[in-house]
Specification:
- The complex is a heterodimer of chains A (about 200) and B (about 180).
- Chain A is mostly helical.
- Chain A has one domain (about 5-145).
- Chain A contains nine helices and two strands; from the N terminus they run αααααααββαα.
- In chain A, strands 1-2 form a two-stranded antiparallel ribbon.
- Chain A is globular.
- With about 180 residues, chain B is of the alpha+beta class.
- In chain B, a hairpin with a 6-residue loop joins strand 4 and strand 5 (about 105-110).
- Helix content of chain B is about 40%, strand content about 20%.
- Chain B has four helices and seven strands; from the N terminus they run ααβββββαββα.
- Chain B has a domain at about 55-175.
- The chains are: A mainly alpha (about 200), B alpha+beta (about 180).
- The interface of A and B includes residues 59, 81, 88, 89 and 175 of A.
Chain lengths: ~200, ~180
């Protein structure tokens, strides 16, 4: 199952990190009220997860087993700080709005999970693709949620007004609880469309 | 024993490489980051004075004196002011006229109020309401739609606590030196 097609199908649909594995929920709730912020957050995550998977994989044969978690955290946090510094320098407005959530990518279970579950056991190129696919799966769900939350909560899409002035903004959609509702709906719908494989019981 | 030593050495080496990379990026972006911060603050000051959003003309129009700014042409002054909000401190730049009797403009530029509710204090319609308010009488935030006195502004529906904190903040402006 190391073909590129399989890796992508797995990362985006079958093992989707948000609606199937329910990982990375903190950022899903926090940043999805505006599309622009969500997009930047997703790009930051794609970069971090694919690059750290690549690095973990390159170092997998020389990394001592007992300290591999420390090594993974070190690699992940380095990439996250790189992203944070670059955002501060080149996209200061968005950096200000995302606040602490970029730094919190370090604790995003998706990245550590992929490092442990895939990158530590596979060659660099598949590991990089796996990170990319997982990041894209995360992006797909977050953008979908943001696409509903921003119009209902602020009456805009990417900051452009799409609903009339008279539109009553749903405060709940602008706040974290709105993401809970949306995430629940996404998980439900995806389980209908593509039911997860039955768990094997021994 | 040999394994343990290798682990320590490996971690040390990796730390040095990571720290080196970060230091290099930090140093190369430092100037840009501090310039961004300076520009962001200057933009708020210009907006509080009601001047066009053009940072390149900042130094020719505005003189920076310690922690406040003076508009050369009219003698109006802008102050940086902050106070506790509902969740986190609210930071603002407020401009007053030369004899300190009237508010010219205010910009709430950094706050942690609830998005969509208290967070709306940084929307233009809310900030514009303070223009022309007098400082010799208390400024009140009142329920929208009700009867309004000269020094009353509309509060934000659903953000009672934020409105109260903003009221406190705005009435401290006259004490600024």
């Amino acid at each position: 199952m190391n073909g590129a097609g399989d890796i992508f199908k797995n990362g985006i649909l079958r093992q989707n990190s948000v609606y199937r594995q329910v990982l990375g929920i903190c950022s899903t709730l926090a940043v999805t009220n505006l599309l622009a912020n969500t997009l930047v957050m997703c790009v930051a995550l794609i970069f971090t997860v694919s690059m750290s998977s690549l690095t973990v994989s390159i170092l997998r044969n020389v990394t001592p087993q007992r300290i591999r978690m420390m090594v993974q955290v070190m690699i992940i946090s380095t990439y996250v700080i790189v992203v944070d510094l670059l955002l501060k320098a080149y996209l200061p407005d968005i950096s200000e709005q995302l606040g602490p959530y970029v730094g919190l990518i370090i604790t995003n279970c998706i990245i550590m999970g992929r490092a442990e579950a895939f990158a530590a056991k596979n060659r660099p190129w598949p590991a990089f693709l796996d990170g990319l696919a997982m990041g894209l799966g995360y992006t797909m769900v977050l953008m979908l949620i943001a696409l509903v939350r921003e119009p209902l909560g602020f009456g805009t899409i990417f900051g452009l007004a799409v609903l009339p002035e008279s539109w009553t903004r749903w405060a709940v959609m602008a706040m974290a609880p709105g993401a809970f509702f949306m995430l629940g709906i996404v998980i439900w719908v995806m389980n209908l469309i593509d039911p997860p494989a039955k768990e094997q019981r021994s | 024993m040999k394994k343990t030593l290798w682990s320590v050495f490996f971690m040390l080496l990796l730390s040095c490489v990571c720290a080196g990379v970060l230091a290099a990026i930090k140093i190369s972006t430092d100037d840009l980051v501090s310039l961004n911060e300076k520009n962001a603050l200057q933009r708020q000051v210009l907006a509080a004075f009601g001047l066009p959003d053009d940072v390149s003309k900042f130094d020719s129009q505005v003189r920076t004196i310690g922690n406040h700014w003076r508009l050369a042409r009219t003698g109006a002054t802008a102050y940086s002011i902050s106070g506790m909000g509902f969740w986190a401190p609210i930071h603002a730049v407020v401009a007053v006229d030369a004899d300190k009797t009237t508010i010219l403009g205010i910009r709430f530029f950094r706050h942690g109020e609830t998005p969509g509710l208290g967070g709306r204090i940084s929307e233009p319609w809310f900030m514009r309401q303070f223009e022309g308010k007098r400082l010799d009488a208390p400024i009140r935030l009142v329920m929208p739609g009700g009867r309004k006195e000269l020094n009353d502004v509309d509060a934000i529906t659903g953000a009672t606590e934020t409105s109260r904190k903003v009221e406190k903040l705005i009435n401290r402006v006259k004490e600024l030196q």
